[in-house]
Amino acid sequence: METALIFIFVLLSYVLGSMSNAIWVGEVFYGKDIRVHGSGNSGAANTFRVLGIKPGIVVLSLDMLKGFTSANLVYFINSVEVGSTQFVNLQLLFGLTAVLGHLFPLFTKFKGGKGIATLFGVVMAIHWLSGLLSLGLFVLVLFLTRYVSLSSILACVFFPFAVAVIFKQEEPLFIAFGIAMALMALITHQKNIKRLLSGEENKANLIPKHKEL
């Protein structure tokens, strides 16, 4: 029974992750297909870049909610003790499955965003203090530089430092997850890093120019 429930929650997490919020927000409220503008990614970063701060915040929040909700599905498995290693491992399993769904969404021919916002949602579910600090850094860098990519990279790289050094967490898999999160940000943002270094990276539109939600 427990194995079957875990399998069902893995599938549900993937479906939740596959919901492309940037696409429907852009099309329903702004008449724009986010995939043919900016970087072409269907994620929060490109929403900030193309549509502006308010729709960007909406998509960022919804994408985070996908990861947060998926990671918390573990609470419906009564046989798992809250806070145990198994509990955290299942949170990571469900959360990362949602990230996989965001990267390769079922509903849009498996072409999605970079998964950073959904990852943040997973982090908020497992250790919200570290997640909140990382999110705060993201917001600060975004408003200072208007570079979504730089904000995402710095926030992800900061996260494992916050977990291990500031909050002194000792769960090996969680620390490994934090390091993997930082590496993922660096790998998926290679083109952005090159554009940042050459001064060619596009800045986010923080001044609304479209019809607001």
Helix-strand sequence: HHHHHHHHHH
Shape: globular
The poorly predicted ranges are none
Overall pLDDT confidence: 90
Distance N terminus to C terminus? Answer: 43 Å
Total strands: 0
The major beta sheet can be summarized as: none
Radius of gyration: 17 Å
The number of distinct helices, counting runs of at least 4 residues, comes to 10
Strand content: under 5%
What level of helicity do the residues show?
Answer: 55-70%
Structural class: mainly alpha
Structure explained in plain terms:
The protein has 213 residues and is mainly α. It has 10 helices and no strands. The longest helix has 19 residues, at 53-71. It is globular and about 50 Å long. The mean pLDDT is 90.
How is this fold's topology laid out?
Layout: H1 2-17, H2 21-30, H3 44-50, H4 53-71, H5 85-103, H6 116-126, H7 128-145, H8 148-166, H9 172-188, H10 190-198
Short description:
By secondary structure, the protein is mostly helical. About 70% of the residues lie in helices and about 0% in strands.
